[in-house]
Amino acid sequence: MTQTLQILQGIKSQFETFHHLTISDEILKKIVNYCDLYVCDRYFPDKAIDVLDIASVRAKNKKQMQLEEKNIIDVIEDLFKVKIEKGNKAQALKKSLNQILIGQNQAINTIIEQISYIEMGINDENRPLGVFLFVGPTGVGKTETAKQIALNYFGNKEKYIKLDMSEYSEPSSVTKLIGSPPGYVGYERQSLLVDHIRKNPHSVVVLDEVEKAHRDVLDIFLSVFDEGYFYESSKKRVDFKNTIIIMTSNLGFNEKMFHKNKIGYVDNQVTQDDIQSVVGNHFRPEFLNRIDCVVYFNLLDLNTCTQLAKDYLQEYAKKAHYEFSSLDELAKEIASQQEGKQYGARGLKRLAKKMLISKIKETEANKIKSKSV
């Protein structure tokens, strides 16, 4: 990006003379930043030069005296079919999370507070923008929240990568992150993470089920959390200073935590203190001390599960052009089943699909039966 900016500064006078425009260095910086954030399928410096060229032509046609930020935004939106959102990203994210997460108000408020700090620039410029640990049972929205942060903060779904840390459980897994040593098979190939960060330096990086990663792998990220970079095997530096790193974990949430009450539903007997204790016992203090914030996601209660089940039933029924006669009762039935309790939204989705298929088959069977009478 620095080299691209220098190239633009070097050719700026040619564009100013040809188009009779004034082009400030600040506008050139915005071109580079917007291209980096929103144009993922093209490479520097070409994409930045193209934007400068087309924006200058448009500004000249409008008889402008200087190139403005709006010219840059319009060109990028038109050419690359993206939407550049300006304004309060934290509030836009809050609106999105409130629409997709039910029963997670505390988690949402904690996340928005942290994103607000990033937006205001209250962070160490030599570290990642943010390092978060999302803790909660499966199917409550941890991964979807990370995707929404990528979309709302960085403005593009491509600014997101998820690593399944169960695949990094051996000491040899370090090579998956930094590449193979010189002379070994695969030395020429970049790792999945390195390749993504090189193309998308502004990204959300999700380390899914981070508790399953080997200590040697966590040590690599320990360096990233502290200094904002690591060196791949070829000794090239990989910069994470413009990333938000989100680790997810379900530590403390397992089958033994799911207790039934008298009506057969799960009591939320897992307290935040319980989870803090489990997390503290699993990770080393030096690792936890480099995390900016731990965000706790709740177990889904009966009312939340019922609402989600109803939403999924309506969604799938609409796609199948089917109408339920007793939607509320069916949603309660789904919410009371163990799969939904234990596996959260994913379990509820599976049950809603099964319910829809069952009802469609039942309807078809009744039609056949009525015709035969």
TrEMBL record:
Coiled-coil portions: none
UniProt-recorded Gene Ontology molecular function terms: ATP binding; ATP hydrolysis activity; peptidase activity
Keyword Protease: yes
Keywords, in A-Z order: ATP-binding, Hydrolase, Nucleotide-binding, Protease, Repeat
Gene Ontology process terms (BP): cellular response to heat; proteolysis
Alphabetized Pfam families for the sequence: AAA_2, AAA_lid_9
Gene Ontology, cellular component aspect: cytoplasm
Residues in AAA+ ATPase domain copies: 128-301
Alphabetical list of CDD domains matching this protein: RecA-like_ClpB_Hsp104-like (cd19499)
Taxonomy, superkingdom: Bacteria
PANTHER family: ATP-DEPENDENT CLP PROTEASE (PTHR11638), HEAT SHOCK PROTEIN 104 (PTHR11638:SF18)
The protein, known as: ATP-dependent Clp protease ATP-binding subunit
Organism whose genome encodes this protein: Candidatus Caccosoma faecigallinarum
